[in-house]
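Appendix C reproduces, verbatim, an entry submitted by the partner laboratory led by Prof. M.T., so that reviewers can inspect both the input and the predicted structure.
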Amino acid sequence: MILVCKSSSIIRALHNKRNVRYYSYLTSRFESRRNVSTKSALPDWYFDTTVNPSEPLFNKVLIANRGEIACRVIATCKRLGIPTVAVFSDSDAQSLHVRLADEKIHIGASASKDSYLRMDRILESCKRTGAEAVHPGFGFLSENTLFASLLKENDIAFIGPPSAAIKAMGDKIESKRIAESARVNLIPGFDGAVADAQEAVRVAKDIGYPVMLKASAGGGGKGMRVAYNDEECIKGFQLSSQEAKSSFGDDRILVEKFIESPRHVEIQVLGDQHGNYLYLHERECSIQRRNQKVIEEAPSPFIDQNTRDAMGQQAVSLAREVGYFSAGTVEFLVDKNKKFYFLEMNTRLQVEHPITECITGIDIVQEMLRVAKGYKLTKSQSEVALKGHAVECRVYAEDPTKNFGLPSIGRLYKYREPKTDKVRCDSGIDEGSEISMYYDPMICKLVTYGNDRNEALNNMTDALDSYVIQGVTHNISLLRTCIDEERFRSGDITTNYLYETFPDGFQGHSLSATDRNYLSAIAALVNLNQEYMFMNKDLTKHLKQTSLSVCCNDVYTNLDISKSEDGFEISTDDEQFTLSNFDANELINCSVNKTKIPIIQLLSRESGGKVRLQYLGTEFVLTVMTPRSAELLQILPVRPKPDLSKLVKAPMAGTLVEIALKVGDTVTAGQEACVLEAMKMQNSLTISSDGVVKKVNFEAGSTVNKDDLIVEIE
């Protein structure tokens, strides 16, 4: 039985029952500008926890974060009967986390530096609301030692590790020294921060290329670059230090040997204030772009039990050495021989924590709350389960065809999370929400579970196919392609997977002739269904034989369509098949020759016979017409595409950190034009052809929108 709790009072009543097993994403939501339906409870494979009412926790918790992680923390607090306080910026006034919390406090303007990074305002919010504790989520102030210290000085519990541990592990130079003392395997590198780009080159030559340039105070892939030669080292140092300064207020850079073709495997650890420690097995996080994770899974398909235990024991040894408690993650690089090397320790709740919760049944947020209150961990190491397999896809508002993901902003005018079995959606948005340029472009952490890896991956394909997102560009096409790709399915992956699998960049799913026939038939039926509806007729009853032509990606498919007892009989120039169970719904779940095909989304039907379909995550535009129209269209002259090589346009909204050119400069193809910062990442925009700078339309510090013309070349 799944419980859907309608109010905080009901949840507090359930709190006294001692056996609340399932996680409800809660209460009727606070009044807002639109009617929002309640998220459903998580399915029964999720947690198997027992709430102990004899252990009083906090009277109120403030979440110093936003979006999906704020919603995630609120959910556990409500299950435990703990009232919550949400803080919010101008652009988050109607956000989901604000409506889910019991109280809300406005803390400033949309930019993070004016709101979520304002320690003084968050501290004042605690005092105003009487919050006894603060959960920082991840990002923002979650690894800020000053913030943790300020809370302690004001007798407010920080739901995280001690500030000394944050400081030690947050500094990659100091953390390596502590790891060495704890006898944790280390990557060869320079023991200290480098002063400038020239010293970085000298260090790199001593270590030997390739090297990793990495922000000392960094995390989340920010402030990281790989260099294979002196030129890349100099440029990488400049970009990494600028990015680190912007993201963390600390521009120190270290240099270490880059382990080629490694796996990125991390260990989740828990510790309490009584010296007890656990490792909750490993997560495979090798599918990355620009050092940011895209797909994670637990356990790793590569790690054996001996390696798992060795990594777990080293992770616990490091936590013990630094006096760590609460939840933390120790990250390792693993080579092809299963030798592993310490990378860093993240002293916070990790983005991908849900997959660990799935395979262990442990609510990590609940453990963080209990540890912060002074209780011991609820389990010993021998009691930590490892059951089944879980996969997480990070669904982002971004275009994966542009460097594997340039952010997209906009409003979600249509949004439907998948409701298939064994699916968990950790999101902080709903229909009508806006993806803002001020914050990370994540839409959702989509998690599926299975008894084994194959089942979990199959559940993921179904979930991705049925995930409806309209209003922004998203990366489901990349996720869907990877999940079904042969090398990924075999588990033969490294951190270079995306670049090796798609050496020319990702361009979406390529249609086979058979795929095109199926999509053309469905587009034709969608169009016919609309026409029959206008005539108040049922397509399935009144359709007679008809001939149509469908254009997709400049390829024309001729179709003969007729009705039969089993569905629709389709004949093309090279194939015949029966399409059954067709219904022109938002999700088209039909069969071909009695074999179910992947779900196809009907995105829209527009004038002129244009039908937009999403198949295997990729959007296709098909135009339905008569055979005669198709014949004439194919002999019309093609309009030439405009030459855009002389223009530098903003690929996304953001802030220009640097303009490298001025009017009159002679430039060559590949030369940097400017650096654009968007959604906490810096991107170098380059010239596409030789010429002379004709016009520079913006200056450093300017805010630009997508497709704004920054530089013109003649």
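The first strand starts at residue 61 and ends at 63. Additional entries are available on request from the coordinating office.
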